[in-house]
Design a protein that fits this description.
Layout (H helix, E strand, L loop, with lengths): L12 H10 L1 H4 L4 H12 L8 E5 L5 H9 L4 E6 L2 H7 L7 E4 L12 E7 L8 H11 E12 L5 H10 L11 H9 L4 E14 L2 H11 L15 H12 L7 E13 L2
Parallel strand pairs: 1-2, 1-4, 2-3, 4-5
Antiparallel strand pairs: 5-7, 6-7
Helix pairs in contact: 1-5, 7-10
Length: 265
């Protein structure tokens, strides 16, 4: 059963920052989906020549460097909640400043940006309306916010398998796509595009999937997750439950990716 994100379901920001900080050195080695999604988001950008741009939730800085190459005449900022990610990204360059900060409370002046690019970061923000408000505050007239995120249905195979085992929360919860629609419409900005696209990865076994999630820093961060070690019997039961989803290519892990582009009038 799909579950939408409720206020009490949100991971603590300190836990999110710590988890992604720990994953800084392993992230790029397993981030093929993240690179594909970020490149797809770049392809959706309208024609513009930003004098000042922000990579919001920059992570290891992969797309910070991509934005610097795409807009060599502009001045770039990179912001992330995870200090470990910034320490990893900063020496590789791409932005003039690397800043630790929160997308819901940007440490930036009003009307100071022409482009905010954010790929697979805002799903960790509890208050997406605040993210949109901050984008509207900091963008200049004609400025663009482009984001990708995840919505309900992401890792549904893993969620359903755990549900069959013990019913506890083992998989991160995400907003409904309809919530993204409503919040974008209410943002006060012009909604240029908003769509959801499913991406399915395949893994040889469950261990490969869980290893990737941990290496990304995106393993279960939800409040209410069971504490302590997962018992061997439960792991065996989970493997058996997930095997029911097996396809010729392997065990599927589906991501429901949201792409949105908005412009400030």
């Amino acid at each position: 059963m799909s579950e939408s994100l409720q206020q009490g379901d949100l991971p603590d920001k300190r836990q999110v920052a710590a988890s992604f900080s720990r994953a800084a050195h392993s992230y790029d080695g397993v981030a093929a989906l993240q690179r594909d999604v970020g490149n797809e988001l770049l392809a959706r950008l309208p024609a513009l020549t930003p004098a000042r741009w922000l990579d919001l939730g920059c992570g290891t800085g992969y797309f910070t460097r991509g934005l610097a190459e795409r807009y060599p005449q502009g001045s770039g900022l990179a912001l992330d909640l995870a200090e470990g990610m910034l320490r990893h990204a900063r020496p590789q360059g791409g932005a003039r400043h690397f800043v630790a900060g929160d997308a819901e409370r940007l440490p930036l002046r009003d009307v100071s940006l022409d482009l905010i690019y954010s790929s697979l970061a805002v799903q960790w923000c509890g208050d997406f309306a605040a993210v949109l408000d901050e984008a509207r505050r900091t963008l200049r007239s004609g400025g663009v916010l482009a984001f990708s995120s995840l919505c309900v249905g992401t890792l549904q195979e893993l969620r359903d398998s755990w549900q069959a085992v013990d019913g506890f929360v083992h998989v991160n919860r995400f907003r409904r796509f309809e919530d993204y629609q409503a919040l974008c419409v209410a943002s006060g900005m012009q909604l240029l595009t908003l769509e959801r696209r499913a991406r399915t990865l395949h893994f040889p076994d469950l261990r490969a999937l869980t290893h990737e999630l941990k290496a990304l820093g995106a393993h279960n961060l939800n409040p209410g997750r069971p504490g302590g070690l997962t018992g061997r019997a439960r792991v065996r039961a989970l493997v058996e439950a997930y095997e029911r989803f097996r396809q010729p290519q392997g065990l599927p892990a589906t991501y429901q990716v949201v792409y949105g582009v908005l412009r400030k009038d």
